[in-house]
Amino acid sequence: MSLTVYRRAHFNAAHRLFREDWSDAKNLEVFGKCSNPHYHGHNYELVVGITGAVDVETGFLIDLKILKDIIKEEVENPLDHKNLNVEVDDFKTLNPTVENIAIVIWNRLRKRINAEYDVSVKLFETPRNFVLYTG
Ligand code: NI
Q1: Is 81 one of the annotated active-site residues of the chain?
Q2: Is 76 one of the catalytic residues?
Q3: Residue 114: phi, psi to the nearest 5?
Q4: Distance (Å, rounded) from C-alpha 20 to C-alpha 104?
């Protein structure tokens, strides 16, 4: 028997998609408006899924209060209202695309969640553009 619980979270962050070794023209061609050298923001919506077995004693899969605190420590505190390129070490040399942000978030959460559970990260950059990463 396996079941997934989900917790939603939210953060606002600024980013710029570019490669330093490319010209401004090529960055604009590949990354479009997201290559704006002056940065721009997104309202990121995060859905974290934890899959495993329900504990018969508590009826919980995982205590959602604990999951909430882990997401706050690993995602909201380090990313909310930050310039991802400038202020977050993970993106000093990694383009902060929605794909890479989801992978960084998953890696951070994975370290904090007991290995008996599977972790998934669904990250919305806009209401219509989102990714799912499961490791
Ligand atoms: Ni963007």
Answers
A1: yes
A2: no
A3: -50, 140
A4: 21
Residues 21-75 have pLDDT tens digits of: 999 899 999 999 899 999 999 999 999 999 999 999 999 999 999 999 999 999 9
- Look up the pTM and report it: 0.95
Give the residue ranges of DSSP H helices in 58-97: 64-71, 77-79, 84-87
**Tokens of residue 93, six digits:** 């040399």
Q: Tell me the three state secondary structure of residue 132.
A: strand
Distance from the CA of 101 to the center of ligand 1, in angstroms? 12
Question: Does the structure show a pLDDT above 90 at 117?
Answer: yes
Q: What is the DSSP string of 7-30?
A: EEEEEEEEE----TTS-HHHHHHH
**C-alpha 4 – ligand 1 centre gap (Å):** 30
